[in-house]
Specification:
Elements lengths: L6 H18 L27 E11 L7 E11 L4 E14 L5 E4 L3 E12 L2 E11 L14 E12 L2 E11 L10 E12 L4 E12 L2 E16 L2 E10 L8 E12 L2
Antiparallel strand pairs: 1-2, 1-13, 2-3, 3-4, 3-5, 5-6, 6-7, 7-8, 8-9, 9-10, 10-11, 11-12, 12-13
Amino acid sequence: MRVPRRGTVAICIVLLIATTSSRSEEPGADLPSVTPYRPSVSTPATLSAPGWLEVEAGLLQAGIADADPRESLPYSLKLAFSADWGIRVGGEALVRSTGAQGEAVSGFGDTSVVLKRRFAVNDHSAFGLELGASFPTARAELASGSGGTELSINGIYSADLRALHADLNLLVTHVARAAADASREQVLYAAALSGNLNRHWGIVAELSGTHQGGIDPTAQLLCAASYSPARRITWDGGLAKGFLRGASSWSLFLGATALLGRVF
């Protein structure tokens, strides 16, 4: 994976967070565990530890088989007010793509804000609802730029299935811009299964895709592994492959989720 120049700085920051988090964890200390939402497309109904600021950051390279790959540094900041309410702010700290004239274009991506509500069913399952808004903070030349404000609603169902955990998402987004013969509503579905191999290692497989009237549907299969050296840090890495017309080709990603510290 070729890393954008500024990506080196982002990687160093994540490494510093990971090192600090791991070393500060003492045996027997009453510390919460991270709640990674990455690297899957879907998100669980569970929120991060209440009162703790949690950060996710990573590297993503998409369209590797194409002539013009797209590279980005996705990030997310999560804060739960309780076990049932939380908020997160995310986006892409850096995007590098190819412009209309064939030149390399880079810059900050769009920014999203999501309000989340969890509805517990029992100790093993829960529903979730996310209300989100994405703001056009990216340059118009970037592939990530929506060109306007987009609103979304995401329905979630999560359940423990013996040794596995399932997350089902159905996200509807009112897109800012669409072709004349295309719908302004885009539907994204995602179904993920995850499990722990042992105390430190985990795996996840996910099927996801999009449907939008007047545009070719997309679908992809994602496979990833995670490693948690301590409760306050989880590393992840994997790949995704689109297999329908309109879907991107191979994508590679790696990143981390870490607790930054207690806010309240």
